[in-house]
Amino acid sequence: xxxxxxxYQSTRGGECGLTASQAIxxxxxxxxxxxxxxxxxxxxxxxxxxAEMSYQETAYEVMRLFLTDYTEEELKHCINxxxxxxxxxxxxxxxxxxxxxxYLELFHGSTIAFKDMALSILPYLMTTAAKxxxxxxxxxxxxxxxxxxxxxxxxxxxxxxxxxxxxxxPKGGVSRVQELQMVTQKGDNTAVIAIQGNFDDAQxxxxxxxGNSEFGKRLAEKGYQLSSANSINIGRLxxxxxxxxxxxAKLVQKGTxxxxxxxxxxxPTGNFGNILAAYLAKQMGLPVKTLxxxxxxxxxxxxxxxxGTYDKRREFILTSSPSMDILISSNLERLIYVSAGCDAEVxxxxxxxxxxxxxxxxTEAMRTKMADFVGGYATxxxxxxxxxxxxxxxxxxxxxxxxxxxxxxxxxxxETGDLTPTVIxxxxxxxxxxxxxxxxxxxxxxxxxxFTIIDDLCKVTGVAVPQAVEEIRNAxxxxxxxxxxxxxxxxxAEILGL
Length: 498
Ligand SMILES: *Cc1c(COP(=O)(O)O)cnc(C)c1O
Prior knowledge:
15% strand; 15 strands; 45% helix
C-alpha cells in the first residue's frame, strides 16, 4: 500500500475514505464512531537519524505518515507554530531518570499537563484543514474535560479567527488549580461551563450533541459547524504518537538502550488516548514490548484487561488524580475495532451494548490481539506512598497522575521481575496538584490556602513556580456559568445565540 492511499474510516462503519483533514474537521463520525486510519503506516526513517533529530523534526517524520493530505509546508508550519517558546524547554518533552525508570515529562507546555502536547498543534491542524476544505462556517469546538483538556484547548483556540470554543467540566471534580485555570480564561471566543455531574456525564452530553442532526441543522443555519478537541479527534492522537518515538530515539542517543532493544511504556490512563498513541507507535514499528495501562480507583480498564468484560456499572470515585476519573474510556473503542480485525459491525454491536446495558464482553480471539497490554491500578494510599517514596529517595516530585503510573509500574516489576527499560508518561506538573502532592509527602495541610502550598512546594523542590500557575494567582474570574447534564444542548444554543 502506498502512503497516498491512507484514508480514514469510522469504527462503526458509517463513513470511509475521508482525508486526514476531513477527519480532523469532523472530530467524531456521524454514526457516533471514531475515525481510524485505513492502515498504520510504518516508520520510514532510521533510528540513527531519528536519534539526532529535534522534537519538531521528529514530529514531522511521524505526523506526515498519518496526515497525508497536508503538504510539507503546511505541516511544518503547524509543527513550528505549536512547539515553540510556549514550551519552557527546547527539548519539549525531556526524559528524566529516577529510581531506574525514565519519566517522560509531557508537562512543559503552557498549561503544564500533557494535553498541551497535542492541543498546542490541533488549532493549527484544524484551521489548515478548514482552509483546505473551503469551510466558510465558524468552527465550534465542543469539549468535555476531566480537568486538563479544557484549559489546554482554550489556550490553543483562544482568539483564533473562525473558531469558538465551549468547555464543560465537572463541578467539584477538578483540582483548585485546574478550575482556576479554566474560569480565568481570556479570549472573546471562549466559554466555560461547570456541569452538575461527573466527566462521563459531560462527555456523554457532548457526544449526544454531536449525534443530534436536528441540532446540527440549526447550527448550520447560523453558519456554525461542530468539531471536537477531545482525544476522540484523530488530530489529537497523531501528535501524541510523536513523543513516544522521540523518547525511544533519545534513549538510543544517550546509549541507555541499543537500537532495536525493546522498552516498556507505562501510561496513567483515563480516556485511553495517551496509551492508544503508544500502541500506534508500536504498530508503526517502534520496539515496544508491553504497554502498562495504569488506572486509579476507577479501575474499569484494569478489570477489562483482567477479564475481557468492560463494565461501567459501578460507583464513580473522585480521586486525587481527577483527570483519570473516568468510567467510559472513549478511545478503547479504537482498540476494540482493531482487535476485531477492523470489523465495524462487531465494534458497533459492542458499543451499542455498552450504551444499552453498561457492559460488554469481547471474545478470546480479540483478547489475544490485546496481549501487548497489561492493566494495573493504584489505590489512593498506594499512590500517596509512592509519591513520598520517590521524593524521599531521589528528590524528584511527581504529580498524582504520574504517581498512579509509577505505583503500577513498581507493582508490575515486583510481580513479574520484568526489568525491561521503561518509559513512564509523566502527564502533569506537580504544581497542578500541589495540595495532594504536599499532603502525600508531609501529611495533612490543614486549612492552608492553595497558593501557600504552592510556595511551600517550590521551597522543598527548588523547582520554579511555572508561569501557568503565577498567571492565575490574581486573575479575574470570567466564567461562572453552571448547568445540568440535561441542559448542555440548550446551554450551547444560548451561548451561540441559536
Ligand atoms: C488526560 C490526563 C490523563 C489521562 O489521559 P488519557 O489520554 O485520557 O488516557 C492522565 N493524566 C493527566 C494529567 C491528564 O490530564
